[in-house]
Structure prediction request, 195 residues.
Amino acid sequence: MERRAEIRRTTKETAISAALNIDGAGKSNISTGIGFFDHMLEGFSKHGFFDLDFIAEGDLIVDGHHTVEDSGIVLGSAIKEAVGDKKGIARYGYFILPMDDALALCAVDLCGRPYLSFECEFNTNRVGDLDTELVREFFYAVSYSAAMNLHIKLLAGTNAHHMIEAIFKSFAKALDMAVKYDERVTDVLSTKGSL
Prediction:
């Protein structure tokens, strides 16, 4: 049985809908109005093998902040709902991903406790139409809405496009590992008995 979620969120600043299948094949239909951000979400879908339909309309006349942050809220909520009760999953995932000059580390714990550590510095303020400072805002929103521990660290990089893309892809790979079923896990992977 595929694990799916559909989330819609509407405020005075944004209207966002997402359909996520974490047992998918990496198919996506993405439209946020921010081309480089679309590219990052497409990479997340493809490299995590998540099917993702994601449509965001935001107040881009102001800037991209509300669109990107609210997209993180919606994606995190969809991840949380799709994962469900977490019975039988690995819970933890990690990946170190190279992309040319860039090397990104990501570790995930689907523990039910939100936390973000984001050790990344970019040498430019924008890539395409995306403000680079919004990358942290996106992952902060994802981590808190999904109630996950999320650690992201750039180990190397000079080109901001490569650096950000490595971050999104490493997150996809780490999350894919964390949501996989492990036949040795018969309930939830916790001494507490719940997550």
Observations:
- The longest strand covers residues 14-21.
